[in-house]
Specification:
Strand content: over 45%
Distance between the termini: 43 Å
Keywords: Repeat, WD repeat
Structural class: mainly beta
Number of helices: 5
Helix content: under 10%
Radius of gyration: 24 Å
Length: about 500
């Protein structure tokens, strides 16, 4: 039997030759004006493959280019991966997965000065590995593998004029050196561990405070019984609330004014991987059960409203509003992107199905609905970070993609374009953190299972050329060293 030519069944657009040539990558030397990096790569690639229907549409104008450069690489000198990144003021904090080496306690939270990336004195030595970090006011809250939450406060300004100590640092090019890190002893101090001892004393006597966690095991309801995977801050400025999510499928609510556990409820049928509080006060949770759930807080409802509420919701402070289902596998990360000029925002969810789903509010039904899917990653998408109109996604395929959102502020359908692909990590991207220094410049911090922390400078520029239906690969303004995607995804 003759083998059938599979090519006859594949519909190839006129731009296929240009697209095929676009995957050729050329490595060039860095211009003499910069000595921060030795090499940069230029490549004109298709950033992601849209649906087949959009291949026949005229190419839209590509009006944004992102020049990206890796300006620093920090390798974990203890072989420990970074599980969480947060930014507080002029410093970036990293929660690591290692708390000792050869029996000697090491810092579970490391600190760098953002402008110089000079390492300051870390803290948390001797405690379990950190799984999540969040900033609450001037506090750093950390979730540890021992199922405890710890609250850290700064005892004074982190100063580079204080005590300096020697520490082994890798520059990311295989060169290891002894360097001086800045900071004074006691610059960060442990304020409390949650649940607090006071909560334990109040709860352990009454049998009603124990819940069944396994067949022959009961635990206090204020305790998580598995790894705490995520933390989120909600409430108001006067009364902040901390949410903690765990692989035990529950969410706990903590009042930060007195560190008291107010509530605990089962949220999903599988491990919870992400938590997020929206500007309107709603809580979003994502789980390995492939669902995103939206939770509302009843607070103190009006008397008339309380009569209409179901009996089960009268006693519960948080209740389920909606269950969002669009992923085919575990949902690993959530992110909100608010319009630059406007009040609307989009919700992004990343899953192990390699997709990023875009959710927007449907005002007629007052609920988030899926508006489209961003495709391009070849493996599971593990983390998201967004600011202004840009979204960054990190994947197990070891790449970071930068997406630009446009069109929503004009009242029409929003469109998304992949404007850059960042390569350099040797392992799956674990977490991302972004900060804007001005309207056209952004700094991205990324960490991977290769135990490296990378710092990227992203510069946004506008192109003059436009891409039409002439089959051209991309429009690039020299000397841009980035991966440009002329294909656009449109919401449907």
């Amino acid at each position: 039997m003759h083998m059938m030519n599979l090519r006859s069944f594949i519909l190839i657009p006129e731009t296929s030759n240009a697209a095929q040539e676009s995957f050729e990558t050329e490595t060039i030397a860095e211009p003499p004006r910069s000595r921060k990096i030795a090499l940069c790569s230029r490549s004109n690639t298709v950033g992601f493959l849209p649906s087949l229907v959009s291949l026949f549409a005229d190419f839209t104008t590509l009006d944004t280019v992102v020049d990206h450069r890796c300006v620093a690489t920090i390798t974990g000198d203890r072989g420990s991966q970074i599980n969480s990144l947060v930014i507080l003021g002029d410093y970036i904090y990293a929660g690591t997965g290692c708390n000792s080496i050869i029996g000697v306690p090491t810092d579970s939270i490391r600190v760098w000065q953002r402008t110089t990336m000079k390492e300051s004195m870390g803290f948390g030595a001797g405690y379990a590995a950190v799984k999540a970090l969040v900033v609450g006011g001037n506090w750093i809250l950390s979730a540890h593998q021992d199922q405890r939450i710890r609250v850290w406060g700064k005892s004074g300004k982190i100063s580079t004029n204080g005590t300096r100590r020697s520490k082994q640092v890798s520059d990311g090019y295989g060169q290891t050196r002894r360097d001086l890190v800045d900071g004074d002893d006691g610059q960060h101090k442990l304020i409390a561990s949650m649940p607090t001892l006071r909560d334990y004393i109040k709860a352990f006597v009454a049998p009603r405070n124990y819940v069944q966690v396994r067949r022959h095991c009961k635990r206090l309801w204020i305790e998580h019984v598995d790894i705490i995977s995520m933390l989120a801050i909600g409430g108001t400025a006067d009364d902040p609330i901390l949410y903690s999510a765990s692989w035990d499928r529950s969410i706990k609510v903590w009042r930060l004014s007195d560190l008291k556990c107010l509530e605990s409820f089962k949220a999903h049928e599988d491990a919870i991987n992400a938590l997020l509080v929206s500007p309107d006060g709603l809580l979003y949770s994502a789980s390995s059960d492939a669902k995103i759930k939206v939770w509302g807080s009843s607070g103190a409802p009006e008397e008339e409203e309380q009569r209409r509420m179901p009996k089960s919701k009268k006693t519960s402070k948080h209740f389920l509003i909606a269950s969002l289902e669009a992923h085919k596998a575990s949902v690993n990360a959530l992110s909100l992107c608010k319009e630059t000029h406007g009040e609307k925002f989009a919700l992004y969810s990343a899953g192990s199905d390699k997709d990023i789903v875009v959710w927007e509010m449907e005002h007629e039904i007052r609920q988030m609905v899926p508006k489209g899917t961003l495709k391009g990653h070849r493996k599971a998408v593990l983390c998201l970070s967004s600011t202004a109109d840009f979204l960054c996604s990190g994947s197990a395929d070891r790449t970071i993609r930068v997406w630009r959102r446009s069109g929503a502020s004009s009242g029409g359908l929003s469109s998304h374009c992949c404007v850059a692909i960042l390569q350099g990590h040797c392992g799956p991207i674990k977490c991302l953190a972004m900060s804007f220094s001005d309207e056209d410049h952004c700094v991205l911090y990324s960490s991977s299972l290769d135990n490296q922390l990378k710092v990227w400078n992203l510069t946004v520029s506008m192109t003059v050329e436009s891409v039409k239906d002439e089959g051209r690969g991309s429009a690039v303004n020299e000397p841009v060293a980035s991966l440009i995607a002329p294909w656009r995804f449109k919401s449907f």
